[in-house]
Amino acid sequence: MRDRGTPSLDQLQVFLVVVETRSFAAAARRLGRATSAVSYTIANLETQLGIALFDRERTRKPVLTEAGAAVLSKVRAVTGGIDDLRASVKGLLSGLEPKVTLAVDVMLPTARLVDAVQAFETKFPTVTLHLHVEALSAVAQLIQAGVADIGIGGTQHTTIPGIERFQAGDVELIPVAAPEHPLARNPPKLTGQARQYRQLVLTVRSSFSEGQDVGVFGAETWRLADLGAKHALLLAGSGWGFMPEPVVREDLASARLVRLVLPELHGGFYPLQAIYRRQSPPGPASAWMMERFITQAR
Q1: pLDDT of 136
Q2: What are the CA-CA distances from residue 58 to residues 17, 22, 47, 64, 109 (Å)?
Q3: What pTM value is reported for the model?
Q4: How far is residue 113's CA from residue 214's CA, in Å, rounded to a whole number?
Q5: How far apart are CA 95 and CA 284, in angstroms?
Q6: Is residue 178 a contact partner of residue 184, using CB atoms and an 8 Å limit?
Q7: 245-253 and 110-123 are packed helices; what angle lies between their axes, rounded to 10 degrees?
Q8: Rounded mean pLDDT, 31-56
Q9: How far is CA 201 from CA 227, 238, 275, 286, in A?
Q10: Least enclosed by CB within 10 Å: which of 55, 157, 230, 247?
């Protein structure tokens, strides 16, 4: 098959306008061109593609042929990609980062994460967002290693050099267990009784710092890097442990879990901070994301 040439972006855009307006004359008015020029452009496009895009014989208005309908989605993809490219270049010229990598602590309430992510993608549609969800000090490890640009984590990073931090609220941690667990059926009266039962403890993945966990009181522990797995084991009655209150709120309301009353353990608050590496200050999009989390806390 002889190569008839490559369609131009202008030809594709004229094709889309004709499809949208369903008229060569209306397309000409929108584009500020003569109707004959629009018709000529479409004719050249059809010649280059080797197919008829519009049926001109059975109707006065241009109607897509079967081949034209198949080409339409491809043309929209091409022109959409060009629009994205132009927007991205505009952002780069204005100092906007092409991508932002965010690391968040698994303790961060899901509602806060969803709010920030959705708002970010609306505000910066040309910036690619990468997300890591980790536990405890693993968030700061990603920041220090340069894997993530910004993070929302706990305070386990305070000894890591070169980390800037800003308060971003907190989340309440409460001790819970399944209703059939001994600590739920018979609340202890004496300090230390909870230590007799297995505690489920959130810890850091082995690829990060070892020995990082929070709120360990039980003599026997199961250490989990996945908050979801910890939640499931608590529901199954495999132990007791501390959980973020927003995560177990519905479980408490439906009595799938019980808030434990322990003489020495009443729960507490897990502080959250927005952090970044001092040597790599956030760009406009990253800074906006950090401010979103900080504003949520206010």
Answers
A1: 74
A2: 21, 15, 20, 11, 60
A3: 0.63
A4: 22
A5: 7
A6: yes
A7: 120
A8: 89
A9: 9, 12, 24, 32
A10: 55
Give the position of tokens 């353990």: 265
From CA 53, how far away is CA 45, in angstroms rounded?
9
Q: What's the pLDDT score for residue 3? A: 57
Identify the sign of the CA torsion 274, 275, 281, 286. Answer: negative
* Pairwise CA distance, residues 271 & 119, whole Å: 23
Q: What is the tens place of the pLDDT at every residue in 175-195?
A: 999 999 999 998 877 677 888
Question: Which runs of E-coded beta strand occur in the chain?
Answer: 54-55, 63-64, 99-105, 128-134, 150-153, 163-177, 199-202, 221-224, 241-244, 258-259, 268-277
Place of tokens 């850091």: 204
Structure confidence by residue, pLDDT tens digits, 56-84: 777 678 888 898 888 898 888 888 777 66
